[in-house]
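Subject line: Sequence and fold of a protein, written as structure tokens
Body of memo: The sequence and its backbone structure tokens, given next.
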Amino acid sequence: MESFSQDNIQNLIEQGMEMAMLYLPKLLLALITLIIGFWVISKIVNGVGKVLQLRNVEATLERFLASLVGGALKVMLIISVASMVGIETTSFVAVVGAAGLAIGLALQGSLSNFAGGVLILFFKPFKIGDVVDAQGFVGIIKEIQIFNTIITTLDNERVIIPNGILSNGPIKNVFAEPTRRVDMTFGISYDDDVLGAKEVIRGLILADNRLLESDMGHEIYVSEHADSSVNLLVRVWCNSEEFWPVYFGMHESVKLAFDAKGITIPYPQRDVHMHSAS
């Protein structure tokens, strides 16, 4: 019985030595690969963070993208190390892939909004404080989130737009450029002097210090012979922040100047001719 026990112990020791000789190099290589891999991943994540900082990406998106890259690389590293040791990873990868596909199908709307938010934060078609015209709403950008963008309309209503449709649709950034052209139309009576009316408007333009000279200069044209008026199209340039003050101010100034000069701003009217039967 004693010899049997000694033989078993001897066999176990020999088997242990064989397994150690077989797997110990793999374990050491896997451990070294794991340590070096984590070091390389940390360098890559730091490099991604620096690149995003140079691109002036928002801090929240920068941290999120760096964490996403780091997590993905760590998962790939662990799977590679497991296969080096001899662990079968094919079924594990298949399960992870199937789970990812199921989650993606279940959350495709949210993922679309998430992707749109990443694109908006990365490429910056607009920023907080910009006035935009998007998806039928005109307002000021108040907040850019990962999934939604919040707009406050000009009459102080809050609108939440999913980033998926916002990033895939047209966006008009109203005051993105430093200067804007202001287009206005003023109607005068058919009995009034067109050249005289143009001179009155030109005098108002020259007296307004907010208006800028452009390559085309200030433009005043007869744009239409309408039903009740001759319409004058006026085009002037100003700084973007002065757009609305110039627009509303010019309308008031033109009305007062036309009244002072006796120039009529007509309203819609119709002539009715009565014929009596003979």
